[in-house]
């Protein structure tokens, strides 16, 4: 009885994690996937900036908007310096979280 529960509980997550890698060979030459790979970093940055400005911008200059503007400026400088989307996203997010939770 216990095995009837534990076996599917172990197998289903394993299969769900393997599925994207198994389907990757079918999408290597797909134009849509190539466009998504090229545009996703820009989309992620736009969502993060929109969320930060919209959600925290109402808290006032020093509580929210100042931290948002400082983090956006830091992210732009970091991206101009290294030209790495991943570093810009993670670095800007980490800097924002540092400002909001530790400094301000």
UniProtKB/TrEMBL annotation:
Organism expressing this protein natively: Corynebacterium massiliense DSM 45435
Keyword terms, alphabetized: Membrane, Transmembrane, Transmembrane helix
- Membrane-traversing stretches: 36-54, 61-81, 87-103
**Per its UniProt entry, which superkingdom is the organism in?**
Bacteria
Q: What is this protein called?
A: Branched-chain amino acid transport protein (AzlD)
């Amino acid at each position: 009885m216990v095995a009837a529960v534990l076996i599917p509980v172990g197998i289903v997550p394993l299969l769900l994690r393997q599925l994207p890698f198994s389907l990757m060979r079918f999408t290597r030459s797909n134009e849509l996937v190539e466009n998504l790979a090229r545009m996703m970093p820009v989309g992620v940055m736009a969502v993060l900036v929109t969320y930060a400005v919209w959600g925290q911008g109402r808290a006032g200059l020093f509580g929210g908007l100042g931290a948002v503007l400082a983090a956006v400026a830091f992210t732009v400088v970091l991206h101009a310096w290294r030209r790495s989307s991943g570093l810009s996203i993670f670095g800007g997010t980490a800097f924002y979280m540092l400002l909001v939770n530790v400094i301000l």
